[in-house]
Prior knowledge:
By secondary structure, the chain is α/β, with parallel strands linked by helices.
Amino acid sequence: xxxxxxxxxxxxxxxxxxxxxxxxxxxxxxxxxxxxxxxxxxxxxxxxxxxxxxxxxxxxxxxxxxxxxxxxxxxxxxxxxxxxxxxxxxxxxxxxxxxxxxxxxxxxxxxxxxxxxxxxxxxxxxxxxxxxxxxxxxxxxxxxxxxxxxxxxxxxxxxxxxxxxxxxxxxxxxxxxxxxxxxxxxxxxxxxxxxxxxxxxxxxxxxxxxxxxxxxxxxxxxxxxxxxxxxxxxxxxxxxxxxxxxxxxxxxxxxxxxxxxxxxxxxxxxxxxxxxxxxxxxxxxxxxxxxxxxxxxxxxxxxxxxxxxxxxxxxxxxxxxxxxxxxxxxxxxxxxxxxxxxxxxxxxxxxxxxxxxxxxxxxxxxxxxx
Length: 370
Ligand SMILES: *Cc1c(COP(=O)(O)O)cnc(C)c1O
Ligand SMILES: [Zn+2]
């Protein structure tokens, strides 16, 4: 059955119901039976839309795309161990958030929606703004006042209305929440269609490895939009019989803001309240991730684990990545710092895949301080 389904009360709704949460107030997931025709996929353009029958958009006419995705997977050495790195900083807006935005805004177009709101610490706002520009949909992006200047410029120049909110990231979310009472909420954490885009990360990796899953994925996590997308994608490949197992997921958080790390280590069912400290990894500094329980369950189900990284390690890893020719934003270096730690305990023949999530050109002021 293809439908929206509430994770708490199990109510279901049509995929064509323009809603982003359940009447009970809780989160919705998407139940969808994807089709993978491997020989058809092989002959298509190298974009994330080559998995067309696995993406719940009805009409091709509604697909909003820049031919993005199918990003290169290159081998990089970490402490002497080869790791396959997915270069998702090479998307049109400079981050993997385009995966989610492409599908979510396609769905908005399919629903006939003319206006959306979103809140973001930067990259999700850039992605939603760009795809709305392509689809001719009006959008308002709420950002914390201290968002990187490059990202704010990008959002504004795509033609979005930009609303800068003083205070914390939570204050920004609250402002968008208020606006979303009357306008469609294109939220990368609430809206389940976003994850139908980020799941293509798993499909691409699997295809690039000859339709085999890696042993281990090392991924950043704040709200979990990439991690949950990867998990959904690999589960779908497993359910469809394309692969025989899913990779172990190692989740990386910034030490100054690591509620999910804490929940995992302490075996908690709910995300603990924490006081967020400043971190260089602004993109994953989420104190109260609404899908936190799902993230911890996904990591547990994959037999994975968590790593927390401090700012000194992020800085060191960022310098190392740049010296290897990869100009990425500081948040991406939290992942690579986690990788440097992880490979010290990995098996000699383990196939490890990780990711670069955001481009360094977006955060020039920060790069000047590294
Ligand atoms: C969004 C983002 C992440 C991952 O964040 P989640 O909150 O887990 O979705 C990682 N790196 C960058 C650069 C990002 O923009
Ligand atoms: Zn419900």
